[in-house]
UniProtKB/TrEMBL annotation:
InterPro entries: DEAD/DEAH_box_helicase_dom, Helicase_ATP-bd, Helicase_C-like, P-loop_NTPase, RNA-helicase_DEAD-box_CS, RNA_helicase_DEAD_Q_motif. It is an enzyme of class 3 (hydrolase). Residues 439-635 form the Helicase ATP-binding domain. Residues 823-836 have a biased composition (Acidic residues). Residues 647-811 form the Helicase C-terminal domain. GO terms for molecular function: ATP binding; hydrolase activity; nucleic acid binding; RNA helicase activity. Residues 249-273, 837-852 have a biased composition (Low complexity). Keywords: ATP-binding, Helicase, Hydrolase, Nucleotide-binding. It comes from the Eukaryota. Its EC number is 3.6.4.13. This is RNA helicase. The keyword Ion transport does not apply.
Length: 904
């Protein structure tokens, strides 16, 4: 049975008798039938190919892989379509097998374009194929999923891939996987690559026609009828079909205009392409790199590490570098495989290069110029911006029995000399306010809750003092470790990880980012940082731990997994535990994990200092957090808890739901191209928006929790490097991300209270306007966001942002310019006594933390003490208003502004 029909693009319902009756087969999938003569001829050609007579029903299955589903949904879709296609043997007299399965793979869109996307799709296809050919009469759909590769096909199957030339990776994939060919016994694939290619040429035009008709399957999924998924409304005002998912004409490859066709008029094409507007070309993936096996990656890694860390060390470094000359240095960088920040293309973030300590180094390790360049020299690091001084205007409030004297200069902080050098190498001239208070607090050994705006340097606020303090003691405290020169995974004796510092954070991306920062500050020291996170390669993470691990950064699930394997990880030596994004950690689903981690060591009571950090800290989270800390813990906040920064311009525009995608595209095309993050509230929306923009040639990528870890890391890397300067993300996956030159954040969906509300809003927009840079945040608002409106308006007023007319009813009645301090924010209110201690004048933010009355027991700033006798004098409380360093000229749109030549 061939489900053929006419070119008028009807989506024809599956005949009643083969419609599945029960879940999970109760799908709304329908058949796309095409009657174009050219396509039909090609189909006939396919059908005429030899096949086993044992096939009961020759039929076609057309899979449209242009859809952007998560891996799970893709699998479900495939399974369910296959089930539909073969018929339900419980309902039908015969088993329907396919003679031919035709996979239409025509468009490289983001998730498809990703290397793992390719693998996933082909794996899905092959699994589907296995299943179709193999399905026992009694097998249920769920059982069938357990069918694995390696089983031989009972009958030959024709397996076709149709794809257009813009997706050469399919050919590459088949070329690189000869085991898929018949000789392996894994079925008969009658179209070796050459056939695929010739088929491709025959059919490409028609495939594009199919494409133009089938793009909207996703909408049909929801609407119960494929017909409604087709554009029926030309909606002249927008130039788009009523269905927001309908692809634009620019992408569609043209509608068929045959005589019997009543195809809708194509929507108006955008007048300019993104590239004409100055956006970089959309990014093609480097499949060669990403298809490397873990073994190949590990080998390249070993070579690179050796290249980065050779030479006699410090004293010769300058001379060696000079001798190397520009050419030599370049050659060495090339040996790092085009690595940026010590991570090569295609490598896992957990395998990024770290400084490998050798026993013969004495107290301080030698310099390695190439490694130094990788760690500190990247142009992709966030640099302090022109508005750095604005950070100092914020009031600092501290609370608790202890009073901390801030340090105004790194030189006065009693840092280990190597740390001081690393701080300079990182380009930090002066500490930010949160650092001014955290450094002495941590040096003095207090537990701490610290709250400061997004992008204000909280990571360094804990890393610098902790690592500096440990540097002098590492030899005494650290666990034994193998000689890095001799270490061989699987052969060297197993050494368990016994970190001194544990940093826990909610997202994988944040974990790897903190790891990057730790790699910098551990440079030339014995302290070895490692990162472990879900989705990453377990074996490789264990290998890293076995090389030595003094500073461990991790996400809760993977941490608990390793803690439960005491031969891999023990917390018995732990001295510091840091919980980053602490409000998220204490409030979310991690209660069990956090409990296990906090009590997971057999350390002596009181040995561990607990430190909690976040930019937002609702009262309930603060109370929960405080339960984990010592009674005399210090609490520090910079500005109002959860406040946004006035370096971020916040625009709110009214956009109806159905117009959002068009509005988004128009917005991106109305501003100079610049690195942009677009936030949505669901994984599905992330997929859809990404598809929409990508099909309009916007250089975008996306990330959410259903993506494989490979895809996630690759997306972030592409965004960080500017290859894909538009990132679509769900909120959680982007918490804490610190990416150079993010000039624009767009809330495509505002975070309603069930999506994190105003705290989530603060974190999202805080991806721009970091560390003194200016940024723009645009939020799409419509009536569905009314719940958020009152607090959103106060947030706007607090930093002097204009309130749009449609939100003016939410302006508090007693509001007047200059009364920012009187705005009431529920989550900031407490009833205690606190002392405002820092920064410029304007009192008005007192009493945020409550609890014990403040005493005047000034704690002097740290002398070079605690065994770290590094000879630096104890810092004096410097006068306020140390300049914040020269502006680095990193203005909101900065150098990106130039149309036609955006630099990322
Ligand atoms: N003293 C400093 N001078 C210059 N740059 C700094 C300084 N301290 C930190 N930075 C840089 O500022 C950027 C933001 O820091 P970080 O990511 O720690 O912010 P954060 O406060 O943790 O933000 P979020 O709440 O969004 O996670 C980083 O790129 C960091 O390297």
């Amino acid at each position: 049975m061939l489900f053929g029909i006419n070119i008028r693009a009807n989506w024809v319902e599956l005949p009643k008798e083969v419609q599945p009756k029960q879940q999970p087969l109760d799908m709304r999938a329908k058949w796309l039938n095409i009657n174009s003569s050219a396509v039909d001829a090609a189909f006939e050609e396919l059908l005429s190919r030899p096949s086993s007579s044992s096939w009961i029903v020759p039929s076609f299955l057309v899979f449209d892989f242009t859809l952007r589903f998560s891996l799970l949904r893709r699998l479900n879709l495939i399974w369910q379509l296959v089930a539909l296609a073969v018929g339900d043997t419980r309902q039908l007299p015969n088993t329907y097998h396919f003679k031919t399965i035709l996979f239409v793979d025509f468009k490289e869109s983001r998730s498809h374009g990703q290397p793992n996307g390719v693998d996933c799709r082909l794996v899905c296809m092959l699994e589907a194929l296995c299943w179709v050919s193999f399905r026992p009469r009694t097998a249920s759909l769920s059982n069938s999923r357990s069918i694995k590769f390696g089983r031989t096909f009972p009958q030959p199957t024709n397996f076709f891939l149709l794809h257009n030339p813009s997706t050469p990776h399919v050919d590459q994939y088949v070329d690189q996987h000869p085991h898929l060919l018949p000789s392996s016994g894994l079925g008969t694939i009658l179209n070796p690559p050459s056939t695929i290619r010739s088929l491709d040429h025959q059919l490409v035009v028609d495939v594009q026609t199919i494409l133009s008709l089938s793009v909207n399957m996703a909408a049909a999924w929801e609407t119960n009828t494929m017909a409604s998924a087709l554009p029926t409304d030309t909606n002249a005002s927008l130039g788009w079909g009523a269905s927001t998912n309908v692809a634009p004409a620019a992408d569609a490859g043209g509608w068929d205009t045959g005589a019997d066709t009543t195809a809708p008029a194509a929507p108006a094409a955008p007048t300019k392409t993104p590239q004409e507007h100055g956006w970089v070309a959309k990014h093609n993936y480097d499949y060669e790199s990403y298809n490397k096996s873990n073994k190949e990656i590990a080998e390249a890694h070993a070579v690179a590490q050796a290249a980065a860390q050779t030479g006699d060390g410090d004293e010769n470094a300058e001379g060696a570098e000079a001798a190397q000359g520009a050419e030599g240095a370049q050659a060495n960088i090339n040996e790092l495989g085009g690595a940026v920040g010590g991570i090569r293309v295609g490598d896992w973030s957990c395998n990024a290069i770290v400084y490998e300590w050798k026993d013969e180094y004495g107290d301080v390790g030698p310099k390695f110029p190439l490694l130094e360049q990788q760690l500190f020299g990247s142009e992709f690091h966030v640099k302090a911006g022109i508005q750095f001084s604005a950070v100092t205007e914020l009031n600092v409030t501290q609370e608790g029995n202890i009073r901390i004297n801030p340090v105004r200069k790194f030189e006065d902080a009693g840092l280990h000399p190597v740390m001081l050098e690393n701080v300079k190498l990182a380009g930090y001239d002066v500490p930010t306010p949160i650092q001014q208070y955290c450094l002495p607090t941590i040096f003095k050994g207090h537990d701490l809750i610290a709250c400061a705006q997004t992008g204000s340097g909280k990571t360094a606020a804990f890393l610098i003092p902790i690592l500096s303090k440990l540097m002098g003691k590492a030899k005494k405290l650290a666990a034994p470790r193998p000689n890095p020169a001799l270490f061989q995974p699987g052969i060297s004796p197993n050494v368990k990880a016994e970190p001194l510092v544990l940093i826990v954070c909610p997202s994988r991306e944040l974990a790897t980012q903190i790891f990057d920062e730790a790699r910098r500050f551990c440079y030339r020291t014995m302290l070895r940082p490692c990162v472990i996170y879900g989705g990453g390669p377990v074996a490789e993470q264990i290998t890293q731990l076995q090389k030595g691990c003094d500073v461990l950064i991790g996400t809760p699930g993977r941490l608990c997994d390793f803690i439960n394997r005491p031969h891999i990880l023990t917390l018995r030596r732990l001295r510091y535990m840091v919980i980053d994004e602490a409000d998220e950690m204490v409030q979310s689903d991690w209660e069990q994990e956090l409990k296990q981690i906090m009590s997971g060591g057999d350390q002596e009571e009181g040995n561990i200092k607990y430190l909690m950090f976040s930019a937002t800290f609702p009262k309930v989270a603060r109370e929960l957090a405080a339960q984990h800390l010592a009674n005399d813990h210090v609490r520090i906040k910079v500005g109002r808890i959860g406040s946004t920064h006035k370096n971020i311009q916040q625009d709110v525009v009214f956009v109806e739901a159905q117009s959002k995608k068009q509005a988004l595209f128009d917005l991106l095309m109305s501003l100079p191209p610049a690195r942009t993050i677009i936030f949505v509230n669901s994984k599905r929306a992330a997929d859809e928006v990404d598809d929409f923009l990508f099909n309009l040639n916007m250089p975008c990528t996306s990330i959410h929790s259903d993506r494989t870890q490979r895809e996630r890391e690759d997306s972030i890397r592409a965004f960080r490097l500017g290859k894909a300067p538009v990132l679509i993300a769900t909120g959680v996956s982007a918490r804490g991300l610190d990416i150079h030159n993010v000039a624009h954040v767009i809330n495509f969906d505002l975070p309603s209270p069930q999506y994190g509300g105003i705290e989530e809003y603060t974190h999202r927009i805080g991806r721009t306007g970091r560390i003194g840079n200016r940024g723009l945040a645009t939020s799409f608002y419509n009536d569905r966001d009314a719940d958020l409106a009152p607090i959103l308006v106060k947030t706007l007023l607090e930093t002097g942002q204009p309130v749009p007319d449609f939100l003016s009813e939410h302006i508090p009645t007693n509001w007047a310019p200059g009364k920012e301090a009187e705005l009431e924010f529920e989550n900031d209110s407490e009833d205690g006594d606190a002392e405002e201690v820092g920064a410029s004048g304007d009192a008005g933010d007192v009493g945020a933390w409550g609890a014990a009355p403040a005493t005047d027991a000034n704690v002097s700033a740290p002398a070079a003490s605690g065994g770290d006798t590094w000879g630096t004098p104890a810092p004096k409380a410097a006068a306020q208003g140390d300049g914040w360093g020269a502006p680095v000229g990193n203005d909101a749109w900065g150098s990106n502004a130039a149309a036609g030549g955006a630099t990322w």
